[in-house]
Amino acid sequence: MRVPAFALAIVAVVASAQADETSTTDKLRILYSSRFTFTEDGLPLVTVQIVGGRDRITLAAPGGLTVIPDGVGGSAATVAGATTWTLTAQDAAPAEIREWTVIERLGPDDPTGVADATAAWKARGFDTHAFELGTLFAVDGEIIDTREVVVAIDPVGPGKGAARARAIADKFQVATSVHAELVRRPRGTIVATAGGTTLTNPSVIWLRPTRAGDTITVTDVPTNTGGSQLTTGSEDRRYWGAVYVTLGSDGKLTAVNAVPEDKLLAGLVPAEIFADAPDAALEAQAIAARTELLAKIGHRPLTEPYLLCSTQACQVYAGAGKEHPRTTRAVEKTRGVVMLRDGGGLVDARYSASAGGHPEDNDWIWGGAPDPSLRGRIDTTDPKLAEAFATLDDKNLEAFLAAPPDKFPSGATAWGKKHFRWTVEVDAAELTKRVAAEYPKLGAIRALEPVKRSRGGRIGALRIVGAKGTVVAEGDLHLRRLLGGLKSTLFVVSAKGPADAPTAFVFRGAGFGHGVGMDQVGAIGLAAAGKSHAEILARYYAGSHLHRLY
Q1: 96-184 in CATH: which number?
Q2: Are 534 and 368 in contact (CB under 8 A)?
Q3: To which H or E segment does residue 435 belong?
Q4: R_g of the chain, CA atoms, integer Å
């Protein structure tokens, strides 16, 4: 048995427990795995990142904190009167990471497909490797399998994978993505100090409230959750359960919350949807969030020591104190309920704030294989509008943007009108400055011309014409950020001023977000019209059904 490194700089009142039989190395490995456990109440215990990239992290609890350097089951220490601990790192080194280009995604039981893909790309002269992602677990006799195998080629250094994947996609006309492989975990010593007391441990230190019922406060947590908005900020946030501080792949400190699923969802759901929305919409959101939470486990980058992030890349989680009685009731009422595909497996339950009346196909936004549960279609209560706008293009998009909001669930209520239709004017000089940061040789922007649109009208490629050159920019999130933080790529654009020297560009658009899966304000509109949570979810996730796991 390895005894955890555990040093006291000054003698203090310390209560110790016997360490368990799991070594520090084994426990650290678990943090990087797809494994999760269940609480005594039968709820999944999930690890969610709070903050990362820090040189110093401060945590506090009103009744004090118990520090457990080696994790739950290891030696524990409490220091009388110490309500605040500051954590730093010594001799820290970042992880070693390789980025691979994914050229094929297969089911977990398709060895022939893996062998064929590997042979084909080896014949082209590439190094190949197969990685298994996802996880497999059983709850009350129900087996949940989120595994997939990705066949990847041509490993490169960190930060180079995206460009390499694009080059391979262009050369061989295949869909690609990037898989980051953790070759070596980050190394260093975590140091926790409170007053005159210092505790150290290799790579990780856990903390939990000493007094039952307390939460842990983490200071200076970013409030910008990764959306298209450009504002940033931070605040102190409270968290249920335990928090561990360890090293992220960058060699900097990261704080992670180990929290039961019900507490996680209670803090997550009100951050994702209006708490004063109708009950059925809140229940639909709780089920979608729970399903997406479980479906993501094992698919997030395995280069980091947690299961999920807390931004829009995973799901927005603001911790304790953000709960609302109505959303908490929706979480409790739907306890353990998830969406399963009719053919088996968890639905990839994506959702966005507003689809603007036409949800989107998953593959258009993120690439990869089309998901039968994430097919975009016109979302209206009017049959004539459904026929006219089944597919959106440059010929009918103006008419679609002018259609009556009350004919669409996402525009029919007060919650949706803010994002259902919008207009933004951007000064030409400001736009030129923004574009120049990405494409410096274009000169003053003269025109913006859609090159291709999805069936739902979203722009996938935009020709940007400058005084000195032209470029075609691609990608939903990339375009939104490039153009100044637009709410979506479902828009038309016109120039103001002379054609050879416009003074501004006017964007008129629909929706907020990527538009894939459940339209959140659309769900509110349907609930207001009397639809149940089951009817709402069936509308936005084809070929699925509800199942209570626990």
Answers
A1: 3.30.70.1070
A2: no
A3: helix 428-438
A4: 25
